[in-house]
Write a sequence for this structure.
């Protein structure tokens, strides 16, 4: 690991000013992703600005019934929080499906959203990777790409976003509160992560130096009827091969409203708007759920080794929605 400076700021404004002033500075939260990448030589910050002691570690109810989650709330604390468990079980499920107990005790809300891709070539400094080293090529495009994208990839990068929490938050229309060098800014979670395009090294729409301070989750009347279904190579402690976050509201058997988002299919957590449109206002059946997934996946362009993801996502969509429909009916 290369030498680096370390600073623990007294407040948010000081933290942002420090990172803004240093082109190669990074915020340090739980360190479960950043420190690993520093050890591998993938990230080489010369200044770490530690956000762990900033007062950003509470979960607070909002007047509209929603939640405001501080950036440094640990994944374990968020999953176990009574308001989250009661009103947003989707978040608890997504969080508990991720990593291990020890990692969740360290990992923070903002760190989870901004964790880097698990593409193996990104982590291997001997291989070409446009994300790590712009202009060097993409070893995954025609290499081992089983775990990578089927939607919205570019010739420059076919990586996926690995966060489970981000998929759930995208489904819930969450909003990121960022403190940028120019001042505070709200960023809808659906607009936080970028498509890879020609610049996969630019992963978010945040300005350099932006500090995420909180995530707001608006009230959703049917949020308690929601689920997260994740398929992975091992039963625990593994990243998603494909995942779905779903919430369903039925009026009789007619879909009054629905939320659907997919994980491990694209460079960003994927809100499945076409599938939602297909479902809304129609009597719910497993066949309708399958047609909804097909509508979303019509745009899929599988790589050499991951065509299986298309039926996988279709199947977990049907399963998640029929489970929810059954629960609503009871
Ligand atoms: C073995 C293993 C298995 C895992 N499995 C899963 C899994 O199945 N699902 C899953 O979702 N995750 C998984 N993870 C990833 C884990 O959840 C992330 O490493 C963790 O959430 C990152 O949070 P952190 O607080 O440690 O972030 P850090 O490592 O401290 O930071 C990550 C990034 O976020 C930036 N950052 C941190 N806080 C802020 C802030 N407030 N504002 C702006 N930038 C900030 C940092 O600069 C850095 O770039 C796994 C990790 C490991 C090591
Ligand atoms: S898919 Fe993206 S992260 Fe992976 S090697 Fe290609 S450019 Fe790098």
């Amino acid at each position: 690991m290369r030498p680096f400076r370390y600073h623990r700021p007294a407040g948010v404004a000081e933290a942002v000013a420090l990172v803004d002033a240093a082109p190669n500075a990074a915020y340090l939260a739980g360190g479960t992703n950043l420190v690993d990448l520093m050890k591998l030589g993938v990230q080489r910050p010369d200044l770490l600005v530690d956000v762990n002691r900033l007062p950003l570690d509470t979960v607070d109810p909002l007047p509209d019934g929603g939640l405001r989650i501080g950036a440094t709330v640990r994944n374990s604390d968020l999953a176990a929080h009574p308001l989250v468990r009661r009103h947003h079980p989707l978040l608890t499920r997504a969080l508990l499906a991720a990593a291990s107990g020890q990692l969740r005790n360290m990992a923070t809300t903002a760190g989870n959203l901004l964790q880097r891709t698990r593409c193996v070539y990104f982590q291997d400094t001997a291989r070409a990777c446009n994300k790590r080293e712009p202009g060097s090529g993409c070893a995954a495009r025609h290499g081992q790409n089983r775990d990578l994208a089927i939607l919205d990839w570019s010739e420059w990068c076919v990586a996926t976003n690995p966060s489970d929490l981000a998929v759930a938050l995208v489904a819930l229309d969450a909003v990121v509160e960022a403190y940028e060098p120019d001042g505070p800014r709200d960023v809808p979670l659906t607009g936080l992560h970028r498509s890879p395009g020609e610049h996969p090294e630019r992963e978010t729409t945040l300005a350099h130096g932006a500090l995420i301070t909180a995530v707001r989750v608006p009230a959703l009347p049917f949020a308690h009827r929601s689920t997260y279904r994740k398929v992975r190579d091992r039963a625990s402690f593994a990243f998603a091969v494909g995942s779905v976050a779903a919430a369903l509201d039925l009026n009789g058997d007619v879909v009054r409203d629905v939320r659907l988002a997919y994980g491990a299919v694209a460079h960003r957590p994927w809100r499945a708007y076409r599938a939602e449109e297909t479902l809304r206002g129609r009597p719910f059946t497993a066949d309708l759920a399958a047609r909804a997934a097909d509508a979303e996946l019509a745009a899929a362009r599988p790589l050499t080794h991951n065509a299986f993801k298309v039926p996988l996502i279709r199947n977990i969509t049907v399963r998640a929605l029929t489970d929810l429909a059954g629960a609503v009916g009871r």
